Amino acid sequence: MTTRTPDHARVRPSESVLGDAWTITRRQFWHWRAQPGAFAVGLLFPVLVTLMFGALFGGAIAGPGADYYSFLMPGIFVMAMLFGLETTMTGVNTDASRGVTDRFRSLPIHPAAVVLGRCLADMIYSVLGLLVLMSTGLALGWRWQDGAAAALTAVGLLLALRFALLWVGIFVGLVAPGPETVAAVQILVWPVSMLSNIFVDPATMPGWLGAVASWNPLSATATATRELFGNPTWTAATWVNEHALPLAIGWPVLITAVFVPLAVRAYRGLGG
Question: What's the pTM value of the predicted model, to 2 decimals?
Answer without folding.
Answer: 0.87
